[in-house]
Amino acid sequence: MKVYKFGGASVKDAEGVRNVERIVRLALNDQMANGQMVNGLMVVVSAMGKTTNALERVVAFLDAGKEEEALAQWVDIIDFHVAIMKSLGLQPGSDIRLQGEIPYDPKRSYDENYDQIVSLGEIMSTQIVAVYLLKQGLSVEWWNMPKLLRTDDTWREAKVDNTVSSAVIRAGWDRPRRPQIVVAQGFIGGTADGRRTTLGREGSDYTAALLGNYLDAESVTIWKDVPGILNADPRIEPNTVLIPSLRYMDAVELANSGAQVMHPKTIRPLENKHIPLFVKPFGDPTAEGSRIADDGVGPIGVPVYIWRKNQILITMRAKDFAFVLEESLSEIFDIIHRHRLKVSLIQSSAVTISVCVDNTRFVSEAIQELCTHFNVTYNENLSLLTIRGTTPEILEQAKAGKTIMLSQTTRRTARLVVVEQK
Ligand code: ASP
Ligand code: MG
């Protein structure tokens, strides 16, 4: 079997859903042409277009007591899905029942409400895709991942219980007379007591990798709006090249440096079972794309540029002169870990430690706590540029015209903390 994952940018409109059908049919034809029994396709889908962001706004409005704004945003989201259904010839209400009320409970924490509400993006998108494929005459089953992918209740970043999940999912897959195609939500799971959880933004790739692992897939394919893994973001760099073959290790590094190409947790479940990962263009399904596997070619022959946006650089200086690096490090990282900050770079000197972290809503509380132990300064509106496979010339070029707050270079990798241009 194979796993296909379609992201929000692919299923952003009716045409995107029709293209999913085209790609799914190609896969089924391939399986038949290879003389295999059609042994199935797992289709993992994210929320349509920018739905997740819109649902996040609903939660924020409700939390701020702005019920009217929340409702208006909610109605927009429903209308967006209804319009897509209609242009696909589906009947809202009869083919697909939409969630009537926003599942918000003021007695629950912000993060728990977030998961109950934001998870609906994937529920809606998968219902639309599943019903559409079914109406086109394909053999399809819709899976409700909150009942199948078991997690703990770390809201917004739930940890998957692989033992329970793999048993449940294998049993679901290995049934006799299971339909050929299963459509499942990426990004969401559920607790033992039936509450929905989310796995962290952009988590659908991770779901696809977990399903590939549990079901011993022959491959996992992430369909994207780019030709494959490129050496730079085509929205920033005019001249990009496709990297056709990578090792798992390279892919992990790319993902962790902030390349928007896949979720950082995607590789491990695949590497464990030696399952190749393909990244292919949604708009050109027969193109080769990129292949990531044990036998991938390395090192990558071209310099790779990875931007990680919305960074904050925090520098801690000891309050007295008794600065012991090791002690301070463990104190700092304890605070960083408790506040769920994502560290992208670390640098230390004799009396300071600087960390670059993603500027999330958890940052300000972490800084407050750090201030009780250290003299803290910080700068916002920064980006981190990582260049892999750099040379002195490449680095000079990259620095030109930029305001650099900090730079760090090792043998082949350079990292620049750059002030974002307004
Ligand atoms: N819909 C979720 C998000 O936008 C998950 C995903 O796209 O992978 O973060
Ligand atoms: Mg998405």
What does this structure look like?
There is one protein chain. With 422 residues, the chain is α/β, with parallel strands linked by helices. The chain has 13 helices and 16 strands. The protein has an eight-stranded mixed β-sheet, with helices on both faces. The longest helix is centred in the first third of the chain and has 21 residues, at 67-87. The model has no long low-confidence stretch (mean pLDDT 92). The site of aspartic acid has 12 residues, from loops.
Short summary:
The protein has 422 residues and is α/β, with parallel strands linked by helices.
List keywords for this structure.
binds aspartic acid; 8-stranded mixed sheet; alpha/beta; 6-stranded antiparallel sheet; binds magnesium ion; 422 residues; 23% strand; 13 helices
Secondary-structure map:
Layout: E1 2-6, H1 14-33, E2 41-45, H2 51-63, H3 67-87, H4 110-118, H5 120-135, E3 140-143, H6 145-148, H7 162-173, E4 181-185, E5 188-190, E6 196-198, H8 204-214, E7 219-224, E8 245-247, H9 248-256, H10 267-272, E9 277-281, E10 290-293, E11 304-318, H11 325-338, E12 343-348, E13 352-358, H12 363-371, E14 374-388, H13 392-399, E15 404-409, E16 413-419
Parallel strand pairs: 1-2, 1-7, 2-4, 3-4, 7-9, 8-10
Antiparallel strand pairs: 5-6, 9-10, 11-13, 11-14, 12-13, 14-16, 15-16
The structure holds aspartic acid (ASP) and magnesium ion.
Residues 7-8, 46-47, 52 line the site of magnesium ion.
